[in-house]
Amino acid sequence: MKLLSTALLALGLSACATPGVEQYRAEQPALDLQTYLNGRLDAWGMFQGRGGEVQKRFHVAIDAKWEGDTGILDENFSWSDGTQSRRVWTLTKQADGSFRGRADDVVGEAIGEVAGNALRWRYVLALPVDGKVYHVDFDDWMFLIDDKVMLNRSYMSKWGFRLGEVSLSFSKP
Known about the structure:
The protein is mainly β. It has one domain: Lipocalin (Beta Barrel), CATH 2.40.128. 11% of the residues lie in helices and 61% in strands. It is built from 2 helices and 10 strands, in the order ααββββββββββ. A 10-stranded antiparallel beta barrel has the order 1-2-3-4-5-6-7-8-9-10. 15% of the residues are buried.
């Protein structure tokens, strides 16, 4: 019985494991973050709650530029409820090829790993909701489709509980 319990626990834990970005190393086209996230980009997205219902839609106008290994992404959001918001990321490429990022509403530092056509971007966002601010974990997965389009799926959670998902499509002119 003890062996069965241990096996079931191991199986349950492995089912919760998220695949790493390395599994996409051979996928093409290869994502060069400094090339793709450079210049003007537009993105359209939506937030879906736990049950899958679309709660908000948005457009993001992004101006991005790099000086050496440091990039600035100036994101201007237009939300479906008529509100506007802005996030300015400072990204830094690391010697090992990973990226670190900071923004005013990001708690600590974001960590990004690139392999093949994929970027996994993890961070904690200070998210204002109804007059309160919650620290929410984001696990972003971005996939370069071609030289103009990148798709993004973000999983939001708090204390390991799924809160919802953000889907986003980036487009370069």
